[in-house]
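Aim 2 progress update. The chain analyzed this quarter is reproduced below.
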Amino acid sequence: MRLTAAALLTALALAGPARAVLPGEQLPDARLEARARAIGSELRCLVCQNQSIDDSDATLAGDLRVILRERLLAGDSDQQAKDYIVKRYGDFVLLDPPFKPQTLLLWLGPPLALAAGGVWVWLAARRRVSGGQPTPPLTPEEHERLLRRLDAESAK
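Predicted structure tokens:
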């Protein structure tokens, strides 16, 4: 049992991330392919949204991988190839979009949503504790009974 567990852990530790780049998409020049992989790891799959185009098996991600490799074969620099894709698909295609007025919602949306949720939870908890209405003051009779009970408790 221990040997099987050790073998499984070793296999998992040695396993690299699965890549969706198909053999037909790969460039014959290893340096160009390495550049394409580096750029592809910075570009978001617009279908999956949390994966790079190299990790996604979505059709659109495959199309973006092909476009990227075509740009590199045409002689574009890494920045030119990335700029070409950003020009066509917008800053959202970048996994790390630049901070500028057009991307404020991308950068500030999650913290604002988290803050709004926190405020909502805080208000809901406050309402639950107070029962939704302020507690009325004690009547003189209730106040007297409370004092008697407290005296009896302290005498024990």
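The chain has two domains: 15-98, 102-155. The radius of gyration is 30 Å. These observations will guide the mutagenesis experiments scheduled for the next reporting period.
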